[in-house]
Amino acid sequence: MTAACASVLVLGLGNDLLGDDAVGLHVARDVRSRLAGAAGCAVRETMEMGLALLDEIVGCEHLILVDAIETGKAPPGHIHEFDADALAGRRIAAPHFVGVVETLALGRTLGLAMPRDVRIFAIEVKDALTLSVSLTPEVQQAVGVAAGRITTLALGLAGPGA
Question: How far is 145 from 74, CA to CA, in rounded Å?
Answer without folding.
Answer: 16
